[in-house]
Specification:
The complex is a heterotrimer of chains A (392), B (117) and C (104). Chain B is mainly beta. Helix content of chain B is 6%, strand content 29%. The chains are: A alpha/beta (392), B mainly beta (117), C mainly alpha (104). Strand 16 of chain A pairs antiparallel with strand 3 of chain C.
Chain lengths: 392, 117, 104
């Protein structure tokens, strides 16, 4: 029957496309719908990190490590270049308090099998000769990697289409119902009706809006992040960089709030990230703001980000910014993704809430969505990501 | 390439002080206050850089600071738009290869990179 | 290769449209064949418009290529998403407070 699919995926960002690919690989007939253009959501407004070091030990870190492994072979599997690299990563530590927090954090990660260490000043400066003298130590992980999210999405689309996947842009979803046979009936903005046994909501920061169509509360909030993009320059130091305060503000926001004296920095939720794309542009970040869906690139942010990067790497003051962007991380209060079948709604699956880890977690999420929809047995650890826990 | 001394509309070129600039290690003479691109044309140089991917020569394209074709390394800083940047005495100008390299002003020790300087 | 030398273009598809990122007509047409109908989409799929001039030079050409290939009226092809800065600006310009005079 025309308009009949096995799975309809709402959201064509990296999570939706990854899910669509893996489901197509399992032989499912998949339609991916998106209300806007290719890469118009968070997947096209983010950095490129597969950062393992910022993940809490536990299911999130384990899944991120599995995802990295998937990325290693994904280029070959999809038959295209994904811009995959492992430049390694270092989290710069400024004071004793952060050092204590990071030591504990690193120990937990090592126990999980992550290849990471704390290194002292001299090794830190050997790998990063251009940083401010104030840093006392850092972490170092050779495993931290990166991809080009746009190339990954392009790859998923091409490989998925070869397996029969359909992707429709500029075709958002305006209504969802059950039909007489119990299938999901989706009405699109183009007035088209499509049906499927299974529905996957992978709409990132906009998942809540899709949930409203079903009268369910998918508690994902936009957490805005602003980034500066520089001209292409030769590598600065050996690895990509963060500061411990970035990790601390992410994992222990209470600590960060107490400590930050500067009201502008506090409101922006300023943290430092410094990563080089495969083409040679640096992405200088970032902010963590709760301003709804206000996507503007603000002057407060470019000032604060510029001050921050020059403080940490003085030579960056000579580098040109060519673009200042903003994107929305899909945030869930308890800091974990929402993944699984919605309780009480058979055939409705949710895969969202990746916050700043969407790119890193895309392959493993897609694979797990595939496992969920195909009703395969899932590893016990993913149970804690189930939507059950976020039900009101 | 030479300079236009007598222009049908703009009239005669005013006198200006001479300044010396260094271009790829060679000394050149320029007029104080003129754009780097004009000084280079007057001295017979019209290839300003080679592109990153295809290593093709570029010079002036739009001439109004919009297209970034004319960029060169100026005083150690790459991607300087020479059509809208005036010369200064003692300026060091280099043909930019691809994304360029960083010289004196732009860096300290760049350690760990591809050693283009 | 000197400026005076003529380079043989193997075919018209090899013509550069995005000068900054060196993206050819062929690559742009391929992106459109693969489903791109907007400037933002062509940019994200080919990198055309991501270079130093941020699509100032190529976007009108790409709009016309999209119009020619898809039949979409030029008036319906939206510009690339506009973002600051209007020209490349040194990070130093945005800094406030004391400037760091040390050479490091």
């Amino acid at each position: 029957m025309k308009g009949q699919y096995d799975v309809i995926i709402i959201g064509s960002g990296i999570i939706g496309l990854s899910s669509g690919y893996y489901l197509s690989r399992s032989g499912k007939k998949v339609l991916v719908l998106d209300r806007s253009e290719f890469g118009s959501g968070s997947s096209g407004a983010c950095d490129d990190m597969i950062l393992l070091q910022s993940k809490k030990a536990g299911v999130t870190l384990e899944l991120a490590m599995e995802s990295l492994e998937l990325y290693r072979g994904l280029g070959d599997e999809l038959g295209c270049d994904l811009g995959f690299k492992q430049m390694g990563g270092m989290i710069l530590i400024e004071n004793q308090r952060d050092l204590a927090v990071m030591q504990e954090f690193v120990e937990q990660q090592q126990a999980c099998g992550l290849n990471v260490d704390i290194v002292g000043r001299s090794e830190m400066r050997r790998r990063q000769p251009n940083i401010n003298d104030k840093f006392i130590a850092s972490t170092y992980s050779a495993d931290d990697g990166q991809v080009d999210p746009l190339m990954v999405m392009k790859g998923f689309i091409a490989a998925g289409k070869e397996l029969g996947m359909e992707v429709s842009y500029q075709e958002g979803v305006i209504g969802i119902d059950r039909d007489g046979r119990g299938d999901w009936k989706v009405t699109t903005a183009l007035g088209v009706t499509v049906r499927a046994e299974n529905l996957v909501i992978a709409a990132g920061a906009w998942s809540g809006k899709i949930g409203e169509l079903l009268d369910i509360d998918i508690p994902v909030q936009p957490k805005k992040g602003q980034l500066l993009i520089t001209e292409k320059i030769p590598p600065v130091g050996e690895t990509n960089l963060w500061t411990a305060s970035y990790v601390v503000t992410k994992l222990k926001p209470e600590l960060a709030e107490q400590e930050e004296p500067d009201p502008v920095k506090k409101e922006l939720g300023l943290g430092f990230s410094f990563t080089r794309t495969v083409d040679g542009n640096y992405l200088i970040g970032s902010t963590r703001e709760h301003v709804g869906f206000d996507k503007r690139a603000t002057f407060e942010a470019v000032e604060a980000l510029s001050n921050q990067v020059v403080d940490i790497i003085p030579l960056m003051k000579h580098v040109h910014i060519i673009r200042h962007i903003a994107g929305f991380r899909p945030e869930v209060k308890d800091g974990r993704i929402i993944l699984g079948e919605w309780p009480g709604m058979e055939g409705l699956f949710v895969a969202t809430g990746h916050e700043g880890d969407g790119i890193a977690m895309a392959p493993i999420t897609g694979k797990l969505v595939d496992d969920y929809v195909c009703r395969r047995e899932l590893p016990k650890k993913v149970a804690e990501l189930n939507p059950q826990r976020v039900l009101v | 390439m030479k300079r236009v001394i007598e222009h049908p509309v703009l009239g005669r070129l005013e006198d200006a002080k001479e300044v010396k600039i260094s271009v790829d290690g060679k000394e050149m003479t320029a007029r104080e206050g003129e754009m780097i691109a004009a000084a280079l044309f007057a001295n017979g140089k019209n290839v300003f850089r080679y592109t990153n991917k295809r290593h093709e020569p570029r010079g002036v394209y739009c001439g109004i600071g919009r297209c970034t074709d004319c960029v060169m390394i100026v005083n150690g800083v790459p991607n300087v738009r020479t059509c809208v940047t005036p010369v200064e005495a003692g300026m060091v100008i280099e043909t930019q290869q691809g994304i360029g390299h960083w010289g004196e002003e732009g860096s300290g020790d760049r350690g760990g990179e591809d050693g283009t300087h | 290769m000197k400026m005076d030398e003529k380079k043989e273009m193997k075919n018209d598809k090899d013509r550069l449209i995005c000068r900054c990122e060196e993206i050819t007509l062929g690559e742009i047409e391929q992106a459109i064949d693969e489903g791109c109908t907007t400037l933002n989409e062509v940019k994200r799929r080919t990198r055309a418009g991501m270079g130093l001039c941020q699509s100032r030079t190529c976007s009108k050409q790409i709009a016309r290529i999209i119009a020619q290939k898809t039949g979409k009226p030029l008036s319906e092809i939206m510009p690339v998403t506009s973002r600051p800065p209007a020209r490349p600006v040194k990070i130093d310009v945005f800094r406030t407070g004391e400037s760091n005079e040390e050479s490091n």
